[in-house]
Amino acid sequence: MISVRSIWSYIDKFLAAILLTVALATVVPARGEAAVAVGWLTNAAIALLFFMHGAQLAPEVALRGARHWRLHSMVFLSTFALFPLLGISARLLAPGLLPDPLWAGLILLTALPSTVQSSIAFTSVAGGNVPAALCSASASNLLGVFLTPLIAGFLLTRHGLDISARSVLAIVVQLLVPFVAGQLLRPWIGAYVMRHARALKSVDYGSILLIVYAAFSHGVVDGIWHQIDAADLCKVALVDVVLLAIVISILTFASRQLGFSRADEITIVFCGSKKSLASGLPIATLLFAGHVGLVVIPLMLFHQIQLMVCASLARRYAARRVTATEPLAVLPATPV
Question: Can you list the domains of the chain with their CATH numbers?
Answer without folding.
Answer: 4-317 (1.20.1530.20)
